[in-house]
Design brief:
Blueprint: H1 2-18, E1 23-29, E2 32-35, H2 36-41, E3 48-57, E4 62-84, E5 87-109, E6 115-134, E7 137-159, E8 162-173, E9 182-193
Antiparallel strand pairs: 1-3, 1-9, 2-9, 3-4, 4-5, 5-6, 6-7, 7-8, 8-9
């Protein structure tokens, strides 16, 4: 897992350096709300999320880029009875989900002046890890899944080289084998440099 993240971050840095004059780079704080099977395992808003994004303009109002995020969902459950094979365990459980989506992102901008609304769509892969800690026991399952993320946002010019980014992004990965589907809504606020 660490090897893949390192490769993506290195590619991201090389990509950004190669086309600095036509590229915008963003860092966003990304709180998220889980839905569906994701909410069944860890419900409630997660304040733990960040993403890094670089977009290269391929026209006046179109860009293509890469987005790498890391989100953590956590929930305390119990105390209650938990069955593991032939073993019954009573105690408080801590559920964790780590999500690491890596997407290629296409965006269409509607340039107005000091602010720029946009629509985007991202597609790629997502590493998902689910962990259930109960007492001294820890049950972990992980999987790489297909990932898609439609996005709606607005960019606000702060000065000629800095931009405030506000966005909402719906993240979805379909079920992969026995691993459940994931879905969550992220709200991003961040800073971009161009």
């Amino acid at each position: 897992m660490k090897k893949y993240i390192l490769i993506v971050l290195l590619s991201f840095a090389l990509y950004s350096a190669k086309a600095q004059s036509y590229t915008e780079v963003y860092v966003n704080y990304l709180p998220s709300i889980p839905f569906g099977k994701t909410a069944d395992f860890t419900s409630g808003i997660s304040p733990r999320g960040v993403d890094f994004e670089a977009n290269r303009f391929i026209g006046d109002d179109l860009s293509v880029g890469i987005n790498v995020a890391w989100l953590i969902f956590r929930e305390k459950v119990g105390p209650e009875l938990f069955e593991l094979n032939d073993l019954d365990i009573y105690g408080t459980q801590f559920h964790y989900q780590n999500m690491v989506p890596i997407d290629v992102v296409f965006k269409k901008y509607f340039i107005t002046g000091t602010y720029t609304p946009y629509l985007g769509i991202g597609a790629g892969i997502q590493y998902v890890q689910q962990r259930n800690d109960i007492g001294v026991f820890s049950l972990t399952d992980d999987k790489w899944l297909f990932h898609t993320a439609p996005e709606l946002g607005v960019l606000l010019d702060l000065n000629p080289s800095a931009t405030l980014s506000l966005k909402a992004k719906y993240n979805y990965s379909p079920k992969g084998g026995d691993f459940p589907s994931t879905s969550y809504l992220s709200f991003g606020v961040g800073l971009g440099l161009n």
